């Protein structure tokens, strides 16, 4: 048993039934870490179909493949090159029907939103649509292993840690130097604690990961969109729902990249805290909020 495998471009050009209706998830597979767990987690959130992008066909066990049958399509694309997310997401935007809800992330990343244990992503996005919103802000919350000796790749799905404090926001300015309305640059987690090991354009933790496809819409390399309203954290009238992506991606990079691996021996600090894999914990710490959705 294996996932259906297609070339990325020809698959989208054929306008298959798998992409005719959302919400759809686009997951870029950069390595072999937590691939099955990532796919299973997002299927449990209620995505109608997942496009798993990888540079070679995915290798999964029969037990891992069984729950994915008919719900995940493996598309071949070079996901390891810089900014691979830009061309990938923009190609899907152009291929799906207008107003289709899309989501994108990487392997070893896990979407959480308010009450996600009991409500599907479709229910949440239906409410968000009623509030006349076409995109949703997500915070990327870094996860990491507490013992890099036992988990040298920094991925520990059973006992992950995260930073419970150290998050902050700065005003975002436009090209003219003036503040942009309802936009902020958010910082924290490993990107803040190890900022000297990361380039300046990789230090933000905000990502517009959930959004509606629209004609001419383009994702930019810094995870923002060409339409400024998509980059706002709420509407002008009240707070809206925000979500979070619990992610091992930065931790993996810090211990794997030649420029940083010799400087990172233990990611824990006084504010490291066990991650409980539950939306309530993230809401309690202000890392996402329900807005008007109760």
Structure description:
The protein is of the alpha/beta class. Helices cover 21% and strands 24% of the residues. It is built from eight helices and 13 strands. The protein has helices spanning 8-13, 35-45, 62-65, 84-95, 121-130, 189-193, 249-256, 279-284; strands at residues 5-7, 24-28, 49-54, 72-76, 101-106, 109-112, 135-144, 161-163, 168-173, 179-187, 206-212, 243-247, 272-274. The strands form two sheets. Strands 1, 2, 3, 4, 5, 6, 7, 8, 11, 12 and 13 form an eleven-stranded mixed β-sheet that branches. The chain has a two-stranded antiparallel sheet with strand order 9-10. The radius of gyration is 18 Å and the shape is globular. The protein starts with a strand and ends in a 10-residue tail after the last helix. The mean pLDDT is 95.
